[in-house]
Amino acid sequence: MNWQRDISISTIDGQKVVIKRNKSIKNIHEYLLVFSFTFLSLILLHPSSPLKTGNYILRNEGFSARKELEKIGIHTPKLLQIDSDVIVEEYFEDGNLYKYLKNSNDFGIVHQVGWITRTLHDNGACFIDNKAQNYLVRNSKIYRTDLGLIQNKANEFMKSLDIGIFLASLLDLENKKYKKIEEHFIAGYICDTKSNQRIPYLSIIIRNIASLVLASNHNNLVTNLLTKSDIKYN
User: Fold this and answer.
1) Cβ(180)–Cβ(107) under 8 Å?
2) Pairing of strands 141-144, 135-138
3) DSSP string, 14-45
4) Is there a contact between 169 and 102 (Cβ–Cβ < 8 Å)?
């Protein structure tokens, strides 16, 4: 489910497309998101300035912003149309990463997501809304969609948020599958499994908090929460 927009599938000039239309309560959702982000940063003792929203979100979704992501190796769906109310993108038959992983054991694809997340962080930005549903799959290749919340900051809290939300969005999968996903994401993020690099320590706390909102299978969620994580932190 998209917190900002209603999603529909249509055909334009013979091409199947995704149409994202603003919800009537989009502005309210943005205010709630900004409040939640700021509140969480305060209770975790890493106060951060409020998220940029409004026209900033539209700019992040635009043609120029996508070209900048492509330059650093982060692929996005082809943008066909954008205005203040509607975004039209190409359609991906394989769907989003959550759906893909629920029905597949192609864990290597998660390595790409770890690399993508680290690449954005190394370029001084963070996704914020980094859940698996915001990654699309085509021929075992990952594309990042829903780009509006990217912030041009990469402090400890925001990097932890990216990592924690991604893992939280998959924490309701079967335990053995989740453990493999976590392993491959972390390997992709640190780029080298023998590296001394570590994951920001707030990630596991944010993962656990965010999972309470993002998870749908609470039996699997409880099992995964009670299983010791192998993540090594800063």
Assistant:
1) yes
2) antiparallel
3) TEEEEEEEE-TTHHHHHHHHHHHHHHHHHHTT
4) no
pLDDT in tens, 84-104: 999 999 999 999 999 999 999
Please give the DSSP secondary-structure letter assigned to residue 134. G
β-strand partners of 8: 19
Cα(132)–Cα(153) distance, integer angstroms: 21
pTM: 0.94
**DSSP conformational letter for 79:** E
Those residues whose C-beta lies under 8 Å from the C-beta of residue 87, and which sit 6 or more positions away, are: 5, 19, 20, 61, 79, 81
pLDDT tens digits, one per residue of 195-234 = 556 788 899 999 999 999 999 999 999 999 999 887 877 6
Given a contact cutoff of 8 angstroms between Cβ atoms, the answer to whether 104 and 150 are in contact is no
> Which amino acid is located at 198 in the chain?
R
Question: 3-class SS at 202?
Answer: coil
Phi, psi of 83 (to 5 degrees): -150, -170
